[in-house]
Amino acid sequence: MRNHLSNYEGGANTFLHELMHLDLAADSVNESPNPHVGDFKIKFTYGDSPKEGKFSGWTKAYGPKLAKILARFQPISTFSKQTGYFVQRNDDSLVSFALANYVQKQIKSYPFLPVIYDKINDAPMLPPKRESTDPFVIFAADGNKPVSFVNFTTTDNGGARQLKDDGDCPTVLKNDSGEDLEIGAPIPSDQYPKSYWDDRKKWLEANKGEDSSGTCKLTIRGI
After folding, report:
1. Pairing verdict, β 136-142 and 45-46
2. Which residue from 96, 127, 95 is spatially nearest to 218, judged by alpha carbons?
3. Could you tell me the pTM of the whole model?
4. What is the C-alpha to C-alpha distance for residues 53 and 56, in angstroms, rounded to an integer?
5. What does DSSP say about strands 181-186 and 73-75: parallel, antiparallel, or unpaired?
6. How does pLDDT run across 75-84, given as a tens digit for each residue?
7. How would you classify the pairing of strands 41-43 and 181-186?
8. Which of 183, 182, 134 is nearest to 159 (CA)?
9. CA 219/CA 63 separation, integer angstroms
10. Which residues contact 122 (CB under 8 A, 6 or more apart)?
11. CB count, 10 Å around CB of 88?
12. Contact present, 94 and 70 (Cβ < 8 Å)
């Protein structure tokens, strides 16, 4: 898919990922002016509903999909640092942002996929028979309780760069270090600017141009 960010992952953003671990490159020597960049882990619930969900293990927030999940939800613990703390310091959150901006300049369109959506509120805007497949991440919300990711497993990752357990960067933080995040409720929609929701509506409307067989009717141009 032309607008799927994972399709543009390669050696360049892998190099940038590793480069961001250097304080000189990230301009974060002594945590100033930027914070130190690391590889964060998330834990979440998956299943058909929050009440019936299963708990995942700690999962490295590598790739666009897991980086978006990290950014979209609040931590379970009220004593935890807030979401922005983790997004600002998670390596692949920064790498995905840089890659998305580069791709947008090249294809003249924002690579908005993967999309994370509430299956109750947003699902009607999506094409049929696609709700359970990449590039969509579906969650079931239950008020202020932790969400449950539907048709999502601990092996589901956001791109080609999800490393095996024996392939961690040396900067991956230990579980329960206080520098990891257990996924809770969605960040309230009113905390996003109106411009975001306007753009998001256009992205989802664009996907309505896909039929149930998954054939894309968007105009594809060479890069």
Report:
1. unpaired
2. 127
3. 0.76
4. 9
5. antiparallel
6. 888 777 888 8
7. parallel
8. 134
9. 26
10. 204
11. 12
12. no
